[in-house]
């Protein structure tokens, strides 16, 4: 059972590392030309990570019947591991894209 969640976490960490790396690259690039980029990034990241974690928590997973629906339970564990471990990546990407709204340096 835990192997399904572990597999979801491994895939989620891969997604999160690619999206997070892209977000850091974009944010560093914007920080050279704009003011207040890191404050915007941190504020939006905090809001976005909260929203993505709540979304994973409230996702309507299929309810397995006791003792017989192991495939449904494994799928639910895989999706939960994927969702929780991949949440920081898209949140960072959203935060990085909002840094384009920061004012340019004079």
Q: What is this structure's SSE topology?
A:
Layout: H1 2-33, H2 37-58, H3 70-86, H4 88-98
When the domains are counted, the total is 1
Mean pLDDT: 94
Q: In this structure, how is the largest beta sheet organized?
A: none
Share of residues in helices? over 70%
Structure commentary:
The structure is a single chain. This protein has 106 residues and is mainly alpha-helical. The protein has one domain (2-101). The protein is built from four helices and no strands. The protein has helices spanning 2-33, 37-58, 70-86, 88-98. The protein is elongated and about 65 Å long.
What distinguishing features does this structure have?
4 helices; 106 residues; mainly alpha
Quick structural overview:
77% of the residues lie in helices and 0% in strands. The chain is an all-alpha fold.
């Amino acid at each position: 059972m835990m192997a399904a969640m572990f597999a979801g976490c491994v895939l989620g960490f891969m997604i999160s590392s690619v999206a997070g790396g892209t977000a850091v690259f974009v944010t560093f690039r914007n920080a050279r030309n704009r003011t207040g980029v890191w404050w915007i990034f941190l504020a939006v990241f905090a809001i976005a990570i909260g929203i993505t974690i709540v979304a994973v928590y409230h996702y309507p997973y299929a309810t397995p019947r006791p003792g017989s629906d192991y495939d449904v339970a494994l799928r639910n564990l895989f999706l939960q591991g994927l969702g929780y471990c991949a949440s920081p990546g898209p949140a960072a990407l959203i935060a990085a894209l909002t840094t384009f709204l920061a004012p340019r340096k004079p």
